[in-house]
Write a structure and sequence with these properties.
Swt1-like HEPN domain-containing protein, 2 strands, 3 domains, two-stranded antiparallel sheet, 22 helices
Length: 396
């Protein structure tokens, strides 16, 4: 297996090089110790406990040997889902090199797709009428949302649930595009589907990077599983029409492209948040805002990062705030004088912007470690990035 892993690592390095050229700045996989982290990740993918938890077995090899038992054991959806993740994350030609039965993965993916259909027109109209009875959208908008999807989108065992999820995504897209995306009404609406993150403590990185652990975290916090329960093609159509924030490549079937798209979305979001912070603090507190309004230890960390780049003979970034970590934004927002004089008029309540950033935080960890970006991740990022960007743009 070591030869296959080494080959995969070389391919990842080449993808990283191409990605770095596309997005600029720090290498996408640059945070990883390639010789150890990627090797471990690939061994875990094939042999490790992460797969075991998803499959209900000892490893992916155990799945191959006991596929019939797993299909009868009540964890069929988990097996099909992880087969789809594997199919999206690995080139099919590589599967055999890792000792994975490509036929098993293909059958699992095919079976997953078979759980969905495209309802006939009359069935869709009937579903729209039922969904509209509990939706914030009127029946015509619900009907347009459902009929606008050309891929198989309705889970055969719960077509009403699938239709409701399509409507919910459109409701959230409309809500965060409003003139007041941080109103109390919008915050309550999002908590109903994305969960209540106001008291969420970010767990250790390993728990976030593990797909099943991350999915469990989302469920425990109250995120509706149906929001991401679509085939990739249908999911891409639905989230695009709902107006969720997306970058080119988000609709790709290649996992690396989708991860790169999420990475670019977060990078653009952070750039605009930094611009926003600088603009608001400078306008209120003057040109000396970095010294007067940024916590001392935080500013020292920024300076240390800049000095380290200079020592490494790398060109320093244009501004000191460009060295900010994702967690720094909230600390800047919540400072009493900053909040009262610069940010409260944009975000209304501290807890709401904190919650918005917390929903994005796990996805940022995933992208910074070159891990698999799931459709759950894309829902959270797409909604909250659009929300924050809308608020920032309207404040300009």
């Amino acid at each position: 297996m070591s030869d296959a892993i080494n080959k995969f690592m070389e391919q990842q390095r080449e993808k990283d090089r191409l990605l770095n050229e596309a997005v600029g700045g720090k290498s996408y996989l640059g945070t990883l110790d390639t010789d150890s982290a990627i090797t471990k990740a690939m061994r875990d993918l094939v042999e490790g406990p992460s797969i075991a938890r998803m499959m209900g077995g000892d490893s992916l090899f155990a799945l191959q040997n006991t596929a019939t038992g797993i299909m009868d054991s009540g964890v069929l959806d988990q097996a099909r889902r992880i087969a789809m993740e594997l199919d999206r994350n690995l080139v099919r030609g590589q599967l055999g090199e890792f000792g994975i039965d490509a036929g098993l993965v293909e059958r699992g993916t095919r079976d997953f797709y078979r759980q969905f259909r495209h309802p006939a027109h009359d069935d869709t109209i009937a579903l729209a009428s039922r969904v509209a009875a509990t939706s914030l959208m009127d029946v015509s908008r619900v009907r347009d949302a459902l009929t606008g999807v050309s891929s198989n989108w309705a889970r055969i065992s719960d077509e009403f649930g699938s239709a409701t999820s399509v409507a919910r995504l459109h409701e959230y897209g409309l809500a965060v595009a409003r003139t007041d995306p941080f109103s109390e009404q919008v915050s309550k609406l999002l908590r109903g589907g994305l969960g209540d993150w106001r008291r969420f403590d970010i767990p250790d990185v390993a728990s976030i990077l593990d797909i099943q652990s991350r999915r469990s975290i989302y469920r425990e916090i109250g995120m509706e599983p149906g929001l991401a329960d679509f085939t990739p093609d249908a999911f891409d159509e639905i989230t695009a029409s709902a107006g969720l924030e997306r970058e080119p490549g988000a609709e790709s079937s290649d996992e690396e492209d989708r991860a790169a798209s999420a990475f670019r979305t977060i990078r653009r979001l952070e750039q605009q948040v930094r611009d926003f912070i600088e603009r608001r603090l400078r306008s209120v507190f003057g040109d000396n805002w970095e010294k007067s309004q940024i916590p001392g230890r935080m500013r020292e960390n920024w300076i240390a990062k800049r000095d380290d780049e200079v020592r490494r003979q790398r060109p320093p970034r244009p501004r000191l705030i460009d060295y900010a970590d994702f967690s720094d934004y909230w600390m800047i927002f919540e400072r009493k004088d900053n909040w009262e004089q610069a940010f409260s008029g944009v975000f209304v309540r501290k807890t709401d912007v904190q919650e918005s950033l917390l929903r994005i935080a796990p996805v940022r960890i995933v992208t910074s470690h070159a891990a698999i970006v799931t459709q759950d991740d894309e829902v959270l990022l797409g909604i909250e990035a659009r929300r924050i960007l809308n608020a920032i743009q309207r404040s300009a």
